[in-house]
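dude i think i finally got it to work??
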Amino acid sequence: METQEFSIENTQSNIEWIGRKVTGAHNGTIAIKAGWLILTGGKLSGGQFVIDTTAINILDITDPATNAQFAGHLASDDFFSSEKYPEALLQITSVEGNRINGDLTIKGITHPIAFDADVNVNGDTLSANAKIVIDRTKYEMRFRSGNFFKDLGDTLIYNDFDLNVSITAKAA
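look at this
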């Protein structure tokens, strides 16, 4: 079977994140630093991508001071510890139909993850879209989690956050 490698075009790929709390939600983007995908016999069979945790943007907060304060909090040890862990990594371990299985590493902590993805190849261009739901508490992000703190009331932040991933990759 023919094996093809596709390099992720980070300028044409993006990850949108959504974090929810009792009183609403916040959303933004996070950059894909690099990555590649492998096709075997025309089907996705492996790959990995590196996420730049120092490039988290908040889109729903327009006040510059509040936005900077929130971005600093996301980069802090309460969340991504971006100074110590500037990258997160998703390594694809197996693919069964549209189901992707992999290992996600955030803050040096690795857990298995599974999600569905739509993958299309048109000539030398691959496009992929997926929604990945992550339990932040598995990666030592416990700030205002109801699993670890009591009586948070309306300051509670839900454990799961969503990543809506859109990737464009070119044949190497």
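Helices lie at 64-75.
im so relieved honestly
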